C-alpha cells in the first residue's frame, strides 16, 4: 500500500470536518450538543421522565447528521429527506417548547429541571429555525410562486 491511500477512518473524519462547516451541519451539531446537555440536566433532576424527548430528538438528529454527512441520502432516494427533516424539526420544536415550558413553570426547587427547561427552550428555538430553513429549501426546490388569476393577460 502506498502513502497516498487514505484509510476509511481518515476520509470519514475529513467528511465530518467538512460537513460541520456547512450551515446545516453546524445546526445539526448544535442540536445534538443541546440535546445531550438537556439529557444531563433532566437526568440530574428529580423528574427524569422528561429525558425521553431529548433522547429521541438527539437520536433522530444523529441519524440525519450521519446520512447527510456521508451523502447516503443520495443512495436512499425512496425517502424524501427534506420532508422527513421538516417533520423531524417541527415535531422537535413543538415537543421541546411544550416540555420545557412545563419544566420551567413547575420546576420550583429543582434547579436541574429548570436548567433543562431553559436549554430545552433554546433547543426548541433552534429546531424551529432549522424547520424554517428546511421549509425555505423545499419552497425553492418545488418552485411554487404566486400566479396571476387575471384572464386578460
Summarize this, please?
The chain has 153 residues and is mostly helical. It contains 5 helices and no strands.
Separation of the first and last Cα atoms: 68 Å
Gyration radius over CA: 20 Å
Helix residue percentage = over 70%
Structural classification: mainly alpha
Number of extended strands? 0
Give the overall shape. globular
Largest sheet: none
- Secondary-structure element order, N to C: HHHHH
The fraction of residues assigned to DSSP E strands is: under 5%
Average pLDDT works out at 87
Low-confidence stretches: none
Helices, by number, come to 5
Written overview of the protein:
By secondary structure, the chain is mostly helical. The chain is 73% helix and 0% strand. It contains five helices and no strands. Helix 2 runs antiparallel to helix 5 and helix 3 packs antiparallel against helix 4. The longest helix is centred in the last third of the chain and has 32 residues, at 111-142. The protein is globular and about 55 Å long. It starts with 7 loop residues before the first helix and ends in an 11-residue tail after the last helix. The mean pLDDT is 87.
Write the layout of secondary structure elements.
Blueprint lengths: L7 H13 L2 H22 L6 H19 L11 H26 L4 H32 L11
Helix pairs in contact: 2-3, 2-5, 3-4, 4-5
Amino acid at each position: 500500500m502506498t502513502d497516498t491511500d487514505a484509510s476509511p477512518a481518515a476520509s470519514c473524519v475529513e467528511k465530518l470536518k467538512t460537513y460541520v462547516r456547512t450551515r446545516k451541519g453546524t445546526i445539526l451539531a448544535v442540536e445534538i450538543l443541546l440535546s445531550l446537555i438537556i439529557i444531563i440536566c433532566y437526568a440530574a433532576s428529580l423528574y427524569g421522565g422528561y429525558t425521553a424527548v431529548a433522547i429521541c430528538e438527539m437520536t433522530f438528529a444523529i441519524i440525519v447528521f450521519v446520512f447527510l454527512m456521508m451523502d447516503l441520502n443520495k443512495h436512499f432516494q425512496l425517502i424524501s429527506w427534506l420532508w422527513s427533516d421538516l417533520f423531524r424539526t417541527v415535531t422537535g420544536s413543538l415537543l421541546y417548547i411544550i416540555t420545557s415550558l412545563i419544566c420551567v413553570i413547575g420546576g420550583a426547587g429543582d434547579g436541574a429541571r429548570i436548567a433543562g427547561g431553559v436549554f430545552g427552550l433554546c433547543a426548541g428555538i433552534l429546531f424551529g429555525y432549522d424547520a424554517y430553513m428546511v421549509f425555505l429549501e423545499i419552497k425553492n426546490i418545488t418552485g411554487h410562486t404566486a400566479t396571476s388569476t387575471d384572464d386578460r393577460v
